Amino acid sequence: MDPLPDWSELPNQILESVLERLDLLADYVRFSVVCRSWNFIAKDNRKKRVKMPCCHPPPMLLINTDIGDIWKVYNVTDDKLLDLQVRVPNTRFCGSSKGWLIFVENDFTVTLINPFFRVRGRVEKENSIIHLPPLRLIKEIDMSRVRHERYVYKATISADPVLNANECIVVVITQPGYQLAFIRLGKDRAWSYIDGRARGRGFDEVIFLGGKFYGVRNNGRLLSLEITRFSFNRKLAARSLRRDHTIKSYLVYSNKKELLMVERHISFDRKNDMRTTSKFIIYKLNFDECKWTKKNSLGGETLFLGDNSSFSVISSSFPGCLRNCIYFTHDYDWFRSKFGPRGPNDFGVYDVEDESFLSIDSTKASMLVKMSLQPSIWILPTFQL
Q: Which of 149, 230, 215 is nearest to 180 (CA)?
């Protein structure tokens, strides 16, 4: 019997030629886990592509299996589960940014974890978990009613905590009142806080863009947030919109270099403890006039929304990625609604131009997501070693 070939000895030119023909991120992930040398080639090739216009790939969907700490990886563009599983805690993740998941532990410690450093059946990579100091709890809170996994509404990071640790700032939106807290990796020993509850309205989402953070309040008002040594410097960037608590806001920086705010309108069935998304409305920020302008089309882009930092991709660059659509998951909300008998049911695909929801019942992810005890979350895999 002939010995198996040593794939690590293939010339780099051949491997790079293969990579140039891969459009799907799922194929990149499969390529990168073959061996160490292939991982290096995939990472270098990915860096080159990211620098090119319109090459940001669609994210993957992590789906909880309810079997210990095992999560499946789903590629939405070809409706397939990857032949690998990742090991991360069976908990709610309050953020997904730069390829890292963010969650809160029992002692209110905020933890970053890279699921693709923890592939099942493979050696766990160094620095796959980063523990930050615990969050300070508000004295007025009844501690017996606080659930650690729901204490942070949403979280994001400004840079990769391993590759660019000196530039990494972690920002979280905490309860009560959805106020902001931040910590600079390797520089701060405790969290700094800013109260965003002006007139009872806190923050829905924060995005890092052009060296500063932008935060959108629950009334649609956008603030430019410049971090100083001890706190945020706040600058008003846009006027308010009339809102209520059945609307969630997401901030997205599009491939056309536009800052978008996406309104998600949600209805609640309290009797059956269910929730349903009824529509999405998109606004573009006019920086000069400090004003939100409504958009009726994504202009060939696709958005991915949920507990993750929002993603935008050029649909035509990736086969199977639906044009002018919003892919959304069942994420955390103001009413802290539980999952109904059908699990985290509020997920799907919304066509912006037709203002309609597309059927996803036949997809492989549909049943898996509904059977999960934890909400699924979008993530963009990384290729660092």
A: 215
Contact 359, 347 (CB under 8 A): no
User: What are the distances in angstroms from CA 17 to CA 20, 33, 52, 384?
Assistant: 5, 18, 17, 20
* Measured distance CA(196)–CA(216) in Å, rounded: 10
Closest CA to 174 of 198, 149, 199: 149
Q: For residues 203 and 177, what is the distance between their CA atoms, to the nearest angstrom?
A: 8
Q: How far apart are CA 124 and CA 217, in angstroms?
A: 39
Q: Which tokens sit at 184?
A: 């600079």
pLDDT in tens, 234-268: 666 676 666 666 888 999 999 888 999 999 999 88
Looking at residue 71, what is its pLDDT?
A: 92
Which amino acid, 282? I
Degrees (nearest 5) of the Cα angle 318, 319, 325? 75
pLDDT score of 289 more than 50: yes
Q: What percent of the chain has a predicted confidence (pLDDT) above 90?
A: 34
207-222, pLDDT tens digit by residue? 998 888 898 887 788 8
269: exposed, middle or buried (C-beta count within 10 Å: 0-12, 13-18, 19+)? exposed
Which conformational region is residue 274 in: left (phi greater than 0), alpha (psi within -120 to 50 degrees), or beta? beta
Question: 345 in the Ramachandran plot: left (φ > 0), alpha (ψ -120 to 50) or beta?
Answer: alpha
Choose between 312 and 55: higher pLDDT: 312
Mean pLDDT of 53-63: 75
**What's the confidence (pLDDT) of residue 357?**
95
